[in-house]
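Comment thread on ticket #2218

A.B. wrote:
> Attaching the input chain for the structure job we discussed in standup.
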Amino acid sequence: MKATPSSRFSARLSTPILVSLALVIAVGAAAGQETRCPPGGVLLGVGTVGLGLGHIPRVDGVRINVRDHCLDQVNGLHLTLWTPRGVTRGDVSVGGPVRGATVGLLPAAGSIHGVGAGLVGIVTEGNLRGAFAGGIGIAGEGSIAGFQAAGVGLVSRGSIRGVQASGVGLVGDGGIQGVQVAGVGLVSGSGIQGVQAAGIGLVSRGLIQGVQASGVGLVAEGRIRGVQAAGIGLVTDESLVGLQAAGVALVANDTMTGVKAAGIRISAGTKIDGLTVTAYRTTTPALTGLAVAGWNDLGRQEGLAIGIYNRAEVLRGVQVGLLNRAENNRSALRLLPLVNASF
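C.D. wrote:
> Ran it. Output below, let me know if you need it in another format.
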């Protein structure tokens, strides 16, 4: 299958983020190879309730450990320096669920629900839900939901929902919904909905819907709908609906509907309905509405075109400009200065 421009851009943007987080996780994995549950640990309490010091598989209360082994379940406060070591269960797991508060250098668990902070980061094999902060990164094999912030990267193999911020990159394979901000790039393997901003690029393998802004480019393989702005280019493989602006170009392989503005070029693959404004050129097989450009290059025009040079294969409206060409007019009226019209 031929790679699309958006998929190539997504791969270039997400790869360094994933690599940096993988290096962090690999440090923990290398230092703790698969091992059987070692002895050790003291529980000050009754049953599973109390204060657990060391390798206590399940604690309902407070569990404190330098580095976890045999993490089964923690309900309460979990204090640990580094990721759990793998346990022989047929496959290697980072541990069981933690519900409550998690604090450490690089804490990890099967899933974490509650609040937590990792000086290096936080890692889960399952879901991460609640309020969390990672000095470098937050990574989850499952979904991430709630309020999260990471200094470098925030990555989920599932969906990301809620309010999230990342200094460099934010990547969600299963879709991104809510309010998200990334210093460099925001990438979704499914779709982006809500309010999002990225310093350089915002990319979706699905739709983009809501209010989005990107310093350089905004790209979607699905439709783009709502209010969007990009410093250089805004591109979709499908339709573009709503209010959009780009410093250089707006491109839709299908239709454009609404109000569009671009510094140099506006191009729609099938039709434009609404108002378009650009300094250089507007191109589309069909226009219904108003087009303002230095050069309006249109197929069927229904409405008004204002520019230096206006051309329409079929004119059903008015052209205002230095030169105006209507291919369907009689030869004497085909090319006229200042104003041309056909109804």
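A.B. wrote:
> Thanks. Noting for the ticket: The CA atoms of residues 175 and 190 lie 5 Å apart.
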